[in-house]
Amino acid sequence: MTIWEQGPLYPDTGKKIVEFPYSIRPGPSDSMIVIEGFDVQPDANGNFIDNGIYQEDELNAIHTFAVMRMTIDLFDNLLEKTINWSWQQSRRHSPVTVRITNNDINARYLRDQQCIELDYYGPPGSRIYNCRCTDFVVHETAHAILDSLRPAWENGDIETEGAAEAFCDLAAMFWILSQPDLCEKVIIETGGNLEQDNMLSLFGVGHGFEENPMKCVRNAFNQNIYDKNAWSPYDFSTVLTGFLYDLLILLFHEKKVIIGEGTALWEAGRHWMKVIVKAYQYAPPGNVSLTHITSFITRAINSERIRDLLDKRGL
User: Fold this and answer.
1) pTM of the predicted model, to two decimals?
2) What is the number of structural domains in the chain?
3) What are phi and psi of 201, to 5 degrees?
4) Residue 45 DSSP class
5) Residue 181 sits in which domain range?
6) Exposed site from 33, 79, 220, 265, fewest CB < 10 Å?
7) Do residue 45 and residue 104 come from a single domain?
8) Pick from 107, 122, 149: which residue ends a domain?
9) What is the pLDDT of residues 23-75, one digit of tens each?
């Protein structure tokens, strides 16, 4: 299946072909995902590849399905179990419905409608499609995954909302780190110095509300400090993603002394992802604080420098 590596708005990235070890139904669809309003058929070889036969909106559906399916497979592996949507406890075979709509300028997961909405906006010929942004697709899929793990968090307090938003932004980073070719691209882009804005740290490049084409929605490479009286969930989420990005840099530096930088990032990322997912698995089912997440991580990763990273964030 053909996907955007990051989306058409991120410079110096393009499309690539990904393979799945199982067949994909027309739509594209499977037992977990249905793209509403589409019935895209595979090509003569049984594939969904951008070879000139598909219309632009059909390629949007193919990309969206593939990125969601990759995200589900990634978390199946990290969780060491098969994900079921929160509503599948009673309706086992009910998939999440994906709507690519012209309703607004956002992207959202709606549990009560069992759907993910990815808006597009702007005049014909210069429309912005949120479904083409890999970060957005992964983020909203992660909301559905987290909802299956911690359903009570949907009605949690503002810090719990922040922890949830951090999980979903981190999922977009997981998606990159799980692919060795994208790890290599991060190393090429940064010259091996992750302490700068880059594909891995930036979320939603080109979708920020400024004229700057590199304006992102959020950035894990930040200096944000914890404030228990913060008024937005994202004030909490960016503190946590900032701390965890700093931690990834620390792990990367330890690895690259032994192996090449691209492999070091991939290896460091594997360990980093597993610890974070475990921290969320063992977090309280009700309201959660950032320290619930960070306390597990400090116990799981033996490094004297973690305390310094936490102090930097006021955690």
Assistant:
1) 0.95
2) 2
3) -80, -30
4) T
5) 157-313
6) 79
7) yes
8) 149
9) 999 999 999 999 999 999 999 999 999 999 999 999 999 999 999 999 999 99
